[in-house]
Design goal:
single chain; alpha/beta; eight-stranded mixed sheet; six-stranded mixed sheet; 27 helices; 46% helix; globular; binds (2E)-Hexenoyl-CoA; Peroxisomal bifunctional enzyme
Length: 719
């Protein structure tokens, strides 16, 4: 867990050895304490260097240990002892110094960083704060404003930025450990008092209170209802107003309030869920670590609409040659200009050169004959997509993978019109595709494991969080969205307003409530889908649209809104009104209030006061209930996959963990009881009927979300 060696006859080299990230587990802390004691007591040793094995200094505390009781030596006294020692200690940072790893570097008297190293205090992203002295030492070293920014955002910084800020003493392109040993030899006998950061006085700006107020406001705006950044601000205030000995106590008190909070549990769950989601597995036994992806050097995109353009940018940014195809010259030219503009802006922001040389634009499918993979991103119309896939089958070489960017159509039906169904897979990007991190990789029943592995690995190369899902209408994300949206519109019928529902959801933590989100996405998309699926259309009496369709409750209000040409932000009117088409400042619209009042009186609905609690329960429990059905149906392999989809694709607040984790935190018994209650009140809404899996889990004593998988006996998986 820590290796001790004597190098250059007088330098103790302590190497943390806890792969993969040398996390400070109890065993590592124990070994470090022993090694430091040995170094400080050995008269031959004049200096110490601390480094990490395999080119990684340290990824911080072992997050897996947070769930259990503290074992082994606590970190704070160990770090204090390193700083107080009479022999110079040099940190040799390669790879990462994060969280407790960064705090370890802060107590070392000197720091050498490799030029590719990254440093940061990401504790806030895990719902806690840097409680091994980080909130007390960093402000003393770099000042309050810079420390506040790093601690409240958890941002990673480069070695160069750390040098500028005064966190590291030297950046090297050579082996950091060897450089640190030479540095340590030169530091012997130099006075250490000015190198003990906890002894420094925090440089305090004259307007401290005003500064803290501004940062508090910013944090509250960015992360509504999230506790950890606010606690970080209080801890940094202590660094400015208290001596170290008192400040560290304050830090520890604040940590105690966060450590066992639901938010910390949720955020730590998200950390592991994100990593679990990449580990796809099929009932056949094929999985992420036994299926080799193909190497993709060239790709083609069909369709340069909003989605197609975003996908081209994502691919080019990942260094892949892209041929973009459109059907008409004018569309091709517009798409080309937009893609080039997007790539140039993106490159400027990242300080790199735009990879325009990777792009080719064409009107001819014939140009695709040699590409490794095609992503079709044409209009969401099955007949059109089938025609494209038939053409691709003829044009592309037999080994080319054919992917469809559909948000819910049957991937297997598309595979069926090709000569290579095993090479067909869905790649459901989220709009805007070059910004949104989520990718649903939709596995058809005939998609080969190599095809799935390739799509998953391509997603990773593009910087996406990829989740493998089964093939059913809407897949995971959009299938779950339906009951959520339905509940929101039913609540409108019953007496709520769009602003009330949005506010309840935003107070819960969503960046945008359901109606503001729909206005942003465009209301016409859903309207077209409802028309295509026969739920609405010319046969429906526009004056008296029925409130039941296909044997269940149906709310026609969204169709009525669209019939007035109100398609959301792009038309300047939707559930809200905007200053102009494309405007973003949503204001309640009296016309919508009128529409709701007229609607309720036409159907003799007595509006009632609806509480925020009911809004949250009906929208979110219906959402999770569909998640349980998705697990039962084998469309998602585990609850973590569903949660990751909602976190990265639908703005579910991270500090709530995702819909499935949230249900587990509320308590499955309670979720079941509320769903039964609402289903009794609304028997014509099948989505409110508790799913058999939910009932089963409750009957099994509501096990933890990580073990639900053991209780799911899927007859057949769609994965
Ligand atoms: C008093 C306390 C005060 C201090 C608090 C802290 O320090 S809080 C901590 C503050 N630190 C952080 O928040 C840093 C969190 N870590 C990271 O940000 C990234 O892992 C990385 C940048 C270090 C490496 O990225 P990468 O893409 O190269 O790799 P990857 O991300 O795929 O991970 C590989 C494997 O390592 C696992 N694992 C990783 N870290 C930890 C950990 N600390 N612990 C345990 N496990 C950890 C990870 O789960 C995965 O396991 P799997 O799935 O193979 O079983």
């Amino acid at each position: 867990m820590a290796r001790y060696e004597l190098v250059k006859r007088s330098v103790a080299l302590i190497t943390l050895t806890n792969p993969p990230v040398n996390a400070l587990s109890s065993a590592v802390r124990h070994a470090m304490a022993k090694s430091m004691e040995q170094a400080l007591n050995d008269p031959k040793v004049t200096a110490v260097v601390i480094c990490g094995e395999n080119g990684r200094f340290c990824g911080g505390a072992d997050i897996r240990e947070f769930a259990g009781p503290l074992r082994g030596p606590p970190l704070v006294p160990l770090l204090d002892a390193i700083e107080a020692g009479e022999k110079p200690v040099v940190a040799a940072i390669e790879g990462v110094a994060l969280g407790g790893g960064f705090e370890l570097a802060l107590v070392c008297h000197y720091c050498i960083a490799h030029f590719k190293a990254r440093l940061g205090l990401p504790e806030v992203t895990l719902g806690i704060l840097p409680a091994a002295g980080g909130t007390q030492r960093l402000p003393r070293l770099i000042g309050i404003p810079a420390a506040l920014e790093l601690i409240t955002t958890g941002r990673h910084i480069s070695a160069q930025e750390a040098l500028k800020l005064g966190i590291v003493d030297q950046v090297t392109e050579q082996n950091a450990c060897e450089v640190a040993v030479e540095f340590a030899l030169r530091a012997v006998a130099k006075p250490l008092s000015s190198r003990r950061v906890s002894m420094l006085t925090t440089p305090c700006p004259p307007d401290l209170d005003a500064l803290l107020e501004v940062v508090t406001m910013e944090v509250k705006k960015k992360a509504r209802g999230v506790m950890a950044p606010l606690a970080c601000i209080q801890a940094v205030r202590a660094a400015a107003t208290m001596p170290y000995s008192k400040g560290i106590k304050r830090e520890s008190e604040l940590m105690a309030t966060l450590f066992n909070s639901g938010q910390a549990r949720a955020l730590q769950y998200c950390f592991f869920a994100q990593r679990t989601a990449g580990k796809w597995t099929l009932p056949s036994g094929a999985q992420w670590n036994n299926s080799k992806p193909r190497e993709i050097r060239s790709a083609a995109i069909i369709g340069l609409g909003t989605m197609g353009r975003g996908i081209v940018v994502s691919l080019a940014r990942a260094g892949i040659s892209v041929i973009a195809v459109e059907s008409e010259k004018k569309l091709l030219e517009t798409g080309k200009q937009m893609v080039i503009g997007m790539l140039e802006r993106d490159a400027k922001r990242r300080g790199v050169s735009a990879s325009l040389n990777l792009l080719k634009f064409t009107l001819s499918l014939q140009d695709l004959k040699d590409v490794d993979l095609v992503i079709e991103a044409v209009f969401e119309d099955m007949a059109l997509k089938k025609r494209v896939f038939q053409e691709l089958s003829k044009v592309c070489r037999p080994a080319t993978l054919l992917c469809t960017n559909t948000s819910g159509l049957d991937v297997d039906a598309l595979a069926g019109v090709t000569d290579r169904p095993h090479l067909v897979v869905g790649m459901h990007f989220f709009s805007p595709a070059h910004v949104m991190k989520l990718l649903e990789v939709v596995c058809g029943p005939r998609s080969s494991s190599e095809t799935i592995a390739t799509a998953m690995s391509l997603g990773k190369r593009m910087g996406k969080v990829s989740v493998a899902v089964g093939n059913c209408p809407g897949f995971v994300g959009n299938r779950m969205l339906k009951p959520y949206l339905d509940q929101a519109t039913f609540l409108l019928e019953e007496g709520a307003t769009p602003e009330q529902i949005d506010k309840a959801l935003e107070d819960f933590g969503f960046a945008m409530g359901v109606f503001r989100m729909s206005d942003l996405a465009g209301l016409d998309v859903g309207w077209r889908i409802r028309k295509e699926s026969g739920l609405t259309g010319p046969d429906v009496d526009p004056k008296n649209p029925p409130r039941r369709r296909h044997g269940r409750r149906y709310c026609p209000i969204p169709d009525m809104v669209c019939e007035q040409g109100r398609f959301g932000q792009k038309t300047g009117r939707g559930w809200y009104m905007y200053d102009k088409p494309g405007g973003t400042n949503a204001k309640p619209d009296p016309l919508i209030q009128n529409l709701l009042e007229m609607y309720r009186s036409r159907y003799a609905i007595q509006p009632r006061n609806i509480s925020d609690k009911e809004i949250i329960e009906r929208c979110l429990f219906a959402l999770a209930n569909e998640g349980f059905r998705i697990l039962e149906d084998g469309i998602a392999a585990r609850p973590e996959d569903i949660d990751v989809i909602y976190l990265f694709g639908y703005g579910f607040p991270r500090h709530r963990g995702g819909p499935m984790f949230y249900a587990s935190m509320v308590g499955l018994e309670r979720v079941l009881e509320r769903l039964e209650h609402y289903h009794q009140a609304h028997p014509d809404v099948p989505h409110l009927e508790p799913s058999p899996l939910l009932k089963k889990l409750v009957a099994c004593g509501s096990p933890s979300v990580q073990t639900w998988r053991e209780h799911i006996k899927t007859m057949h998986s769609h994965l």
